[in-house]
Specification:
30% helix, 9 helices, 16 strands, five-stranded antiparallel sheet, alpha+beta, 443 residues
Length: 443
């Protein structure tokens, strides 16, 4: 060991100072391989090295400040994790760390001046040793990929080329795993942030409305192969406007992500801010269109807005559609019909054509507002073509609503959600928002 000059000097115990480098130790810990059992990919690469070189033993080793941990140890009986390691002083692997990742090759360990006094030459029967570094993407030495022969030998250029290639393969496998772990963690974080942001764009709970039964739900679109990580553009809100009047809005911003969230937030709060001064739903949606154009909103919006008040006979209101699917009314006797006149979507044209339609709800009647996820639902990708092409459309939605005859708003929303799930098998092809207003039946 006295014959070797380590790149960064030596610790007081004579071993390389680089063993204790915090950045290197952090990189070793980040592999998440320390104190883990054998795995096929590393066993296969080590076995291949032992077979090609003819050496009796081959190791994939991670080296921290105090020990060498054998992720793979072909040719060595090591049944438990405690047997798959040795103190770093008793390992040749520290040479690779101390030499800043240079290969370390010994043809005759007992006579080579660099290793003849090493404490493991005799006990571990090291005749010849050849190792190449395992490197992190930043160049930190994580450990070694090495072979050991019981007898002295001259390692051929083919042997060394094979070891170098296999060491790079092991390093690439470690880096890939780390990259995937980082990516998965990023997705989990993004998904959590998206859920928080989505929650912030929806009211935490619907405002109670005297003599009106209300309920709402939101189901984000599914993403094949991973968690949902994007904020959807569907939104709804229910609020008091002025005097006896209340307003309910439901909309769908084109696309997903941060831009969609910005437009969603602007649309929801613009409607709230103007609702106290504007009685006409059509005029209010026209005002929203102007606001979107003046602020150069990057996405267009479809929306439905209604104002209503309680009456001695139930509920009276006006409704306007801006590029949005018509609302559905479920009468107390179970009949279902569409409500609203088609209008121009918002955020594209300077002039929009919107119409107010008056309506009344009697006791037992229910008004359903919804986004197109509820009337354009398809089955999960990969299902048989005939099933995948079957659309849960406006007719199916109306039938599902009619089937809830007599149910309150909360159960109605739940049953419609169940009908959609039964159709698409738990995989939502689009975001889906539902909002129901029902006049309770008299006792």
């Amino acid at each position: 060991m006295a014959e070797v000059q380590f790149s960064a000097g030596a610790r007081p115990d004579g071993l390389p100072s680089a063993l204790s480098d915090p950045a290197r130790l952090e990189a070793v810990a980040a592999t998440a391989l320390l104190d883990t059992g054998p795995e096929e990919v590393f066993e296969d690469l080590a076995s291949l090295a032992a077979r090609i070189t003819g050496a009796g033993r081959a190791f994939v080793t991670l080296v921290d400040a105090d020990r060498s941990f054998w992720k793979s140890c072909v040719g060595v009986e090591a049944a438990t994790l405690s047997e798959r390691q040795n103190p770093v002083r008793e390992s040749f692997c520290y040479f690779l760390v101390g030499l800043d990742g240079e290969p370390f090759v010994v043809n005759d360990a007992a006579s080579d001046p660099r290793t003849r006094d090493h404490p493991s030459v005799g006990p571990m029967r090291i005749g010849a040793w050849a190792g190449y570094p395992l490197l992190s993407p930043e160049g930190q030495v994580l450990g070694s990929f090495c072979v050991i022969d019981d007898s002295p030998r001259v390692w051929s250029s083919a042997d060394l080329a094979t070891l170098a290639t296999l060491a790079r393969s092991v390093s690439a496998e470690i880096h890939l795993r780390r990259s995937l772990a980082v990516a998965h963690e990023a997705h989990r974080t993004a998904a959590a942030l998206a859920r928080l942001l989505q929650q912030g764009l929806l009211p935490p709970r619907l405002r109670p409305v005297p003599r009106v039964d209300t309920a709402a739900s939101y189901q984000p679109a599914s993403v094949v192969g991973r968690e949902d990580v994007e904020v959807g553009g569907d939104f709804y809100d229910l609020f008091h406007t002025r005097g006896p009047y209340y307003g309910a809005v439901l909309g769908d911003v084109c696309g997903k992500g941060v831009e969609a969230a910005q437009v969603t937030s602007m649309a929801r709060y613009t409607v709230r801010a103007d609702a106290a001064d504007i009685a006409s739903p059509a005029v209010l949606l026209d005002r929203l269109n102007t606001a979107m154009l003046s602020q150069h909103a990057p996405r267009f919006v479809t929306a439905v807005y209604t104002t209503f008040r309680s009456t001695p006979g139930g509920l009276a209101g006006r409704i306007s559609l801006a590029g949005h699917p018509p609302a559905l009314v479920r009468r107390a006797d179970g009949r279902v019909h569409q409500l609203g006149t088609p209008g121009t979507l918002l955020g594209v044209l300077d002039t929009v054509h919107l119409t107010d339609v008056r309506y009344r709800l009697a006791p037992g009647d229910l008004l359903l507002l919804y986004t197109d996820g509820a009337c354009e639902s398809r089955a999960r990708p990969g299902t048989p073509a005939d099933r995948r092409q079957t659309l849960f459309g406006e007719r199916e939605l109306a039938e599902a609503l009619a089937a809830t005859h007599g149910l309150d708003a909360q159960v109605t929303i739940k049953e419609i959600g169940a009908a959609l799930t039964a159709h698409h098998g738990g995989w939502a092809s689009d975001d889906t928002a539902l909002l129901a207003l029902r006049v309770p039946t008299r006792a």
